[in-house]
Structures are given as C-alpha cells and as structure tokens.
Write a structure and sequence with these properties.
415 residues; alpha+beta; Cytochrome p450; three-stranded antiparallel sheet; 16 helices; 50% helix; globular
C-alpha cells in the first residue's frame, strides 16, 4: 500500500525504515514528488523539515553560515537531544567535526587534513592493497561461503583506518564492537542495551580508551595520526581530553563503518546486477566510476541535521529561525531530476553527482581514502572471482544515521 505523505515523513524517524530498501525509497520518492521540504512531527522527536531533493540539500550545505550543525547534528529523540546538550555544558559530550561549525570546525579539521591529502593517500595505498589481498585470500580460506558483511567487509577498512591511527591489532576487535554499538544503538543485534545509561556507557568506553591513547602519545609521540591528534594545539593549548577523544572517535568509527557498508553493498549490487559485474570485469578501466556508483547506491550516511539561524525560504517553504532540517542523502542520490534512471545500478555512470560525502565545508575528510579502499578491494577480488551468488537473504542494520548491510551470505569460487 502506498504511504500517505504523513506516513512517508514519519518513516524517516523510524530506524527500521533503513533496513527495508523498498519501504525507504517508496517514502522518499513520494516526498520528492509531492512535498520536497516536508514537516515531520514524529512521536518522541522535536519536529523537523525533511529535505529530499538534491538541489535543496546542496543549497542548505552551501549556506553553512545560515544552517548550522549545532545544536542538533544528527537525528535523535528529543530526550537524547536534551541529554546531549546537558553533557556538552558539562564538557563531557561528544564534540566531533560533525558537531562543529566555523570557526571551530575549520581549526579542528586542519588537525587531520594533511593525513588525508593526495600525497598521504599515495603513501598509504600500498598498505591498503596489501590488506585488500589479505581479505580476498581470507575469502579463499573460508572455503567458498561466508557472511561477507561480517567476516570480510567490516574488517578490511577497520584495519586500514586503525593502522593509520597507529593502534595495535590487538585492539581492533574492541574498536569494531564499540563502533557497532555506537552506530547500531537502534538495532537489536548490535545495541548494548536500550536504556540511556547503557548507550552512554558505550561513549564513555570509547572516551576511556582514547584518553589512555592520548596520554601515551603525548609521553612518547610516534609517526601516526593518533600522535598528530594527541599533540595538536589550538591557540597554543593542547586539546582537552574530550576534544581529543572525540577526534579519535570520528576517525576510528566513520573512517571504517561507512566504507565497510559500501564494500558489502557494492558486492551485493554486483550480484544482483550480473550484467554490470560482467561489464566491470571486461572493462576494469571503469573501476573509478564503479566505485562512485557503489557509494551512491549504498549511501552509508543517511542524514545530517542542520538548524536555521534565521528565516529562509527553501523550495517555496518558509523555514523559521531555530527550525531543524534533515538532509536526506539517500533521497538526494536517487533524485530523478539529477540522475538518469537513478534506480539503475550502472558501473559506468558518468557524470555521478552523488552527495554521499556531503558537500561544501563539511565534505567528508576521508572521501579519498574511502575511494582508494573500495577500488583496491574490488581490483583484487574481481580478477580472481569465477562465480558468486547469494547464500541466504541479506539483512540491513536498523538505523537513522550510518549503516548498510549487516549480513550478506554469499557462495563463491575464487582463483
């Protein structure tokens, strides 16, 4: 049954919507067509405007001085929003690049920027390709059948980003579990618990780990990103413990969870579209375009929120000062006015103006690294792949923020 506009808007505040592609895209297509800037009043949430058209999302992103990340950077219940504000006042809240606006955003972003520039990425690429080979070899070791999402896709980019940070491999499994608990707080398989206290404890566990790392890197600096963060200075002063820990959290979590979602979702798309798999294997020069198509197709980041600093008219709708807006990236990336046949998976799509990395001053710091990782993995896998099929139903994580497939059972033959 086709949803009403009200139901379509409410779906965006329901984590289970994002675990059901058909339901999600039916709701988003309706909103794009009939109410591109749509008022959502969902139970337990402060009302917000859902922005679903590509051009409107870009307009908001361009006007970063008018539409701020603070105080509501991601969709959360009114109770959780209030709790986060109280934590921030006490100086114990998460304060990442996602939470910041200029001038803080510009200054803090510069701390890690050099580590993600093209020169640094070229230096890192041999390690990325070494790890890609390790995990394709791991598929061979698994005997031709595995849960690709859990046994391969989550581990490869995790090793890359935590190697960049300089963390020991003995801590990687701990980081994976904490990341899944943080981003999977609405998913029955990943959440540590449902209470506010249990969700807060996940964050405190992250902070405790990274505060120890900060102290170690300040005592004995090393040549890694963790040392750059630990020893960074703002106006001559070192970062406080929570700002340093927050920086580690965003690098360690967003730096691998989004990429693992793209790799798992990209493989699923190739399985579901065997003509595109054959096309890519026959034309490996298409790989850079294919990587961006996988990123568009999956869109791991589902939304960011913005808050208006003054009244503003967007797509004929008056947004009032202090109103919240939800920028729907899965919707923008399937906008019929921007993409030719947006529901067709096309490894040669060009141009591909997807917004999966955001736009403007908040454009994803790790976008180049994500592209290198996805490309390296599939350039290692596809020449060795002789057959692949689903071995069971895929399942997606329930979330309103970051996610993708949590299970992808596959059966395959590799040379």
């Amino acid at each position: 049954m086709t949803p009403t506009l009200e139901e379509a808007g409410l779906a965006l505040a329901d984590p289970k919507t994002y675990a059901d592609d058909e339901r999600l895209h039916e709701a988003l297509a309706l909103l794009r067509r009939d109410s591109p800037v749509h008022r959502v009043e969902a139970p337990d949430y402060t009302p917000f405007w859902a922005v679903t058209k590509h051009d409107d999302v870009m307009e908001v992103e361009r006007n970063h001085d008018l539409f701020l990340n603070a105080p509501r950077p991601v969709l959360a219940t009114a109770e959780l929003d209030q709790m986060n504000r109280e934590r921030a006042k006490q100086g114990i809240g998460l304060r990442t690049l996602v939470h910041m606006d200029d001038p803080d955003h510009r200054v803090f972003r510069a701390i890690g920027a050099d580590w993600f520039r093209p020169r640094a990425m070229r230096a890192l690429e041999p390690r990325v390709r070494e790890l890609a080979k390790r995990y394709v070899d791991r598929m061979v070791d698994l005997g031709g059948e595995c849960d690709f999402a859990q046994e391969i896709a989550v581990h490869f980019p995790l090793y890359v980003i935590l190697s960049l940070l300089g963390l020991p491999e003995s801590d990687f499994d701990r980081m994976l579990k904490l990341t899944q608990e943080l981003f999977g707080g609405d998913d029955d398989d990943f959440q540590r618990g449902t209470s506010k206290e249990e969700k807060l404890q996940v964050l405190l566990d992250f902070f405790a780990y990274f505060q120890g790392l900060t102290q170690a890197r300040r005592t004995t600096p090393t040549d890694d990103l963790a040392s750059a963060i630990a020893n960074a200075r703002i106006d001559g002063e070192p970062l406080n413990d929570f700002d340093a820990a927050s920086y580690y959290v965003i690098v360690a979590t967003a730096g691998h969870d989004t990429t693992s979602a793209t790799i798992a979702g990209g493989l699923h798309a190739l399985i579901e579209h065997p003509d595109q798999l054959d096309r890519l294997r026959a034309n490996p020069d298409l790989m850079p375009l294919a990587v961006d198509e996988m990123i568009r197709w999956v869109t791991p980041v589902k939304e960011f929120m913005r808050t208006a600093t003054r009244d503003y008219e967007l797509h004929g709708v008056t947004i009032r000062k202090r109103d919240s807006l939800l920028l729907s990236y899965p919707s923008a990336n399937r906008d019929e006015d921007v993409f030719d046949a947006p529901f067709r998976f096309d490894v040669g799509r060009d141009p591909n103006k997807h917004l999966a990395f955001g736009f403007g001053v908040h454009y994803c710091l790790g976008a180049a690294l994500a592209r290198i990782e996805v490309r390296a993995f599939f350039e290692e896998l596809l020449p060795r792949l002789t057959s692949i099929e689903l071995a069971g139903p895929p399942e997606s994580i329930a979330t309103t923020f970051v996610g993708g497939l949590k299970r992808l059972p596959v059966r395959y033959s590799l040379g």
